[in-house]
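thoughts on these tokens:
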Amino acid sequence: MISLLGVLALQPPPLEAGVLEGRLFDADAGEPVAGALLTLRSPSGAVRSARSDTAGAFRLKDLPAGAWDVSVQRLGYRPHRARLRTGDGLASVEWRLDPLPLLMDEMVVRARRHPGGEPVAAFVETISLDRRAPGADLAQTLDRATGVNVRRYGGLGSFSTLSIRGSTSEQVQVFLDGVPLNRASGGGVDLGGLPIGGLSSVEIYRGAVPARFGGNSLGGVVHLRTRPLGSEARTRMRTASGSFGTRQVGASVGGPWREWEYLGLVDYSASRNDFRFLDDNGTEYNAGDDGWARRLNSDFRGLRALAKVGRNLGAGRLQVHNTLDLIRKGIPGLGSNQSLHTRYDTWRHIAEASLFGALGPRSAGYRLQAHHSLTRDEYRDRLGEVGVGRQHDRNLTRSLGLRGEVNVLLPGHSLVTAFAAARGESFSPDDLLRSESRLLRSRRRALAAGTEVEVPLGARLTLNAGTQAEGLDDRFFDRKSFAPSDVLPSRENRELLWGWRLGGKLDLGGGLALKAHGGRYRRAPSFFELFGDRGAVIGNTRLVSEEGRNRDLGLVYRRRGDGAGLELAEAVYYRNRVDDLIRFVQNSQRVSRPHNLGRALLRGVETRLQARLRPWLSVRGHYAYQRAENRTPFSFERGNDLPNAPRHRLHGRASLDLGGVGLHGEVSRESRHFLDRANLRAVPVRALYNLGGSLPLAQGLSLSWELRNLTDDRVADLWGYPLPGRFYGLSMHYATNP
């Protein structure tokens, strides 16, 4: 309810105004309310509108004398309608808005005990992408996060997978504005196929997974957020160029239009990726035939188009998102035996509509979401340069999902969340060569329901508990007859996955908090793991579902206030046990096949630090130790490290701010790790050094540069797939109302 001070009464007197101005405040906190939409309508049909600025102020000029119906709307506040009469002169008013609880942008706005919106038991790191490094893609950006390990097959846009705390890429859930990107067809989410354009931030959840993401993830969650809608007109443009023919260009425009807010964006990136590498000619132990070569058929082109609109509907809000990605890239194959003609193209469209708002006077909120995605992949290896035999597949994946969520704030500030979701996905392969492909027409239907409760016990202790059940119904069909297939005699078509989690947070005072979490999670094998037949991957129809039990305990310090000093410190110990672990394992022919390895024990310590040593000097970094141990019953493997799991990872960054001129230096170090279960094929230790900076040129215009891999260290994440050496990048960025 809005209280109008000193202006409106039961019979409002005429305002001595042709101008109406005033300010809006939060009735509880007393803070200014920005972005509120004020709309005045006269009986003659005239409409005048304005929005409050960051100080909560608004102004309407040249108002004809007469009666007006006024409407004030702001997301998170109760709407109000009133009637007033204008005259000649100036009138100043002050309105106070009462807040309402609601669900918005995957965050719960309910009470003021968690200003940062961080879940109670989760360890979360947020990476801002508004000013990304020149020539950087999503894989390079996420590789700097705590507890995250990214494996890349090459340069910009190349196939890249992500691991959290020693997990596999299949165990990590990836979301784009709340829409799941993991597909039942599987293969893990390819970070190289996700353009970075239009993204504003990435949230990485390690361990505990909030209910809004389903809560049944073995490894963790990566949530990609696109740029939000805004109440002010804003234009952005960006262009970048760099080594190996790398180029990026993008533009966006957004702002208010009548009662709507909109955002439109187009972003294009490309690279030849023709970097030099040392070719061992396939003879690792014979240096006599080694020589420098240039990466071939490694080019990449990606285009993203994004459109978002939203408007307030009373106490709620409607938002619609559309994202279109077009990706074309070459598959270069092994460095010692490069392919020249193998290609992989992707066309992906994602549409989402969400309606969220308040239920009741001040105690509940709701969120309804529907999404549809359509992805077409085309893989062409007609000469058999990369995979086993000749291939030309064109696969179509369609997904449709519905989700509803309700939050209720009970007396004593206990919060109860309940959700239900339904999702259907179909996978339709088309073998254009009419060969004996192992890929089958498949579909998966899933129904999920769960609840989560957050209970404060006193002023310092908050407990969190949740559970969810997900029922899967899989069907597989013969490619030619479209009749149901019985190729999976060892696995039921229906399965129930059930999980739970329990955690808490203890406020120790002075910005220090103790967090703990434990949970049980399950994951069914994907169609790719069951029937994979692309490139050097062959599926395994005898796989069973993975089951994990995750635990972690950590101390977190967050400073309140500004100024020099320690801003953030975090130390976390985790211990995860996975049964029937699915891992892709390479054999001597360099063909990968997934296996249930029996059991794995993942243990580690994560530390993170962020500090401002001087007003002009800040540092941040992290160190993670992990022991991803193979606990299979086979004696010749038990106790070995799991593939692609380095024990030590270190990243540090120091930044200087010299009156608007920025300079930073980075160092990343990763210990030796192995590609095989026998721990015989090692990837050596690597240390990479980067240097970059920024320079303001004019109002809203800035220049950024970066030199990566200064020592030109020739490294590789995977055997036979070299990564670029030294790289330079330069970018220009322009923004209005930044």
Q: What stands out?
A: The first strand starts at residue 3 and ends at 4. Residues 138-142 form the longest helix (5 residues). Confidence is low (pLDDT under 50) at residues 1-16, 104-117. DSSP finds two helices and 51 strands in the chain.
